[in-house]
């Protein structure tokens, strides 16, 4: 049995070291290495850490490079994740165009993603087992961000869902509405939300999806004047 106080102290020491507090570095560094590799400390740290999704090719809240867009190469961006909930059975990835009209927002949809893989590599084939959904344009796969003719900035959100279902039980080519239907659970209606979450479209959407353990997102933007 591991003492809770000892684990808490280890977390504190580890956080100081990672934050750059390298006091007595020649003494503390070996000890920190042991702490970081401890199953008790690493498991507790993962449970406490916030779920994250990110791309090595798109900085959060920054320009989407032309190689991922149209005009451009239209390559799929890399997508990686960290700190998934312990009971995650599968992941869902959604890319949406924030300014688009309803019914034209989904540019990329993947589901039945195994949480055991490290992520999706730029422009590469999808790992085995991942199913590709139908985007809002009636095709399977990735629809690159498109620049507006009026040069207005267009925002694209990348949303990752951690679910408690090993598979959604859907064939390839399902749309976002079908995916949400498989993640919905009775008693999680958006109308039950009170303010301020009730005014947040994403919060309302997520509230009804009882099979979603946690979610994370980042966004990028694109325009004809993209640097």
Question: How would you portray this structure in words?
Answer:
By secondary structure, this protein is an alpha+beta fold. It is built from five helices and nine strands; from the N terminus they run H-H-H-E-E-E-E-E-E-E-E-H-H-E. Strands 2-9-8-4-5-7 form a six-stranded mixed β-sheet, with helices on one face. Strands 1-3-6 form a three-stranded antiparallel β-sheet, with no helix packed on it. A hairpin with an 8-residue loop joins strand 4 and strand 5 (106-113). Helix 1 (4-18) packs across helix 2. The longest helix has 15 residues, at 4-18. The chain starts with a helix and ends in a 5-residue tail after the last strand.
């Amino acid at each position: 049995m591991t003492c809770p106080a000892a684990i808490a102290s280890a977390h504190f020491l580890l956080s100081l070291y990672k934050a750059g507090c390298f006091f007595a570095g020649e003494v503390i560094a070996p000890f920190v290495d042991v702490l970081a590799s401890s199953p008790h400390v690493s498991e507790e740290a993962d449970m406490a850490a916030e779920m994250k999704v990110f791309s090595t090719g798109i900085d959060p809240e920054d320009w989407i490079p032309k190689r991922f867009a149209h005009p451009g190469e239209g390559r799929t961006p890399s997508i990686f994740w960290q700190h998934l909930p312990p009971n995650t059975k599968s992941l869902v990835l959604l890319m949406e165009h924030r300014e688009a009209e309803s019914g034209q927002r989904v540019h990329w949809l993947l589901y039945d993603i195994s949480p055991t893989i490290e992520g999706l590599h730029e422009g590469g084939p999808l790992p085995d087992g991942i199913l590709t959904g139908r985007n809002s344009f009636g095709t399977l796969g990735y629809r690159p961000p498109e620049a507006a003719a009026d040069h207005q900035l267009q925002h694209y959100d990348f949303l990752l869902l951690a679910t408690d279902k090993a598979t959604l039980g859907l064939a390839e080519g399902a749309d976002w509405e079908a995916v949400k239907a498989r993640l919905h659970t009775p008693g999680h209606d958006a109308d039950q939300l009170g303010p301020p979450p009730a005014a947040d479209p994403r919060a309302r959407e997520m509230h009804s999806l009882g099979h979603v353990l946690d979610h994370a997102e980042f966004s990028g933007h694109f325009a004809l004047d993209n640097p």
